[in-house]
Specification:
By secondary structure, this protein is of the alpha/beta class. The chain is built from four helices and nine strands, in the order E-E-E-H-E-H-E-H-E-E-E-E-H.
Length: about 230
């Protein structure tokens, strides 16, 4: 993948949230956005190793094991928040999912939860089975009863690499048993990245951090919802 040469580890920035309305949204090949380009994005979106502002979020289909059905990203109406994680992660994913749980709670409190869907994709399907994901949701204070949060589990490690790494650009590398000082079994070295996609399929924000400020993200989400609902 040519864009992978712009390795994310070399890009030392996080995205800003401030933005204003631009124009009507374009089609699913990428185009018009609600939010202005991030002020601190150092490279053009086309040079980044993942979809960024103004680009189409690649479509994917993955099982939701808790609901017992397959989710098609293109068929999800409204605003979409997409991220990737693994439940055994002791640090980065705890921060990331914890912040997004706060965003989800904010959508409920502001009455826009019907307009926003959260898709959290595990890239560790070997360990993250139904029971693990259900317990993880409880531990991370995800409001599963709200109906707008879905855990997605690829059918195999190969499928996880195909969708998460190759398609979405959320890079991850498996570290073998005995090679990690954090976990007794295998571990992952991975990028922490969250996408905010508008209803037309275009990326509004790609938050490259394991600590996205939940108030900032919620503000971006609310702005997109209000402009497109």
């Amino acid at each position: 993948m040519q864009r992978r040469t712009y390795l994310a580890a070399s890009l030392g920035f996080t995205t800003a949230s401030a933005g204003c309305l631009t124009s009507a949204l374009g089609g699913t090949d990428g185009g018009e956005t609600v939010l202005d380009p991030p002020a601190d994005q150092q490279f053009d979106s086309s040079q980044l190793p993942y979809p960024a502002h103004g680009e189409a979020l690649p479509e994917f289909e993955l099982p939701d094991p808790l609901a017992g059905e397959v989710v098609e990203s293109a068929a999800v109406d409204g605003t979409l928040v997409v991220t990737a994680f693994f439940a055994s992660c002791p640090v980065e994913c705890v921060r990331l999912i914890g912040q997004l749980a706060g965003v989800q709670q904010g959508t409920v409190e502001r009455g826009i939860d019907d307009e926003v869907t959260f898709l959290a994709i595990t890239f560790d399907p070997e360990r993250d089975d139904v029971a693990t994901l259900r317990e993880y949701g409880q531990r991370m204070n995800i409001d599963m009863a709200a109906g707008n949060w879905r855990f997605l589990r690829p059918e195999s490690p190969e499928r996880a690499e195909s969708v998460v790494d190759e398609k979405l650009g959320v890079t991850f590398d498996r570290i073998g048993a005995g090679e990690s000082q954090r976990l007794p079994g295998y571990d992952f070295r991975h990028l922490s990245l969250t996408f905010l996609r508008n209803p037309a399929g275009t990326v509004e924000r790609a938050y490259r951090t394991d600590r996205p400020d939940h108030q900032r993200v919620l503000s971006d989400v609310e702005t997109v919802v209000e402009a497109t609902a």
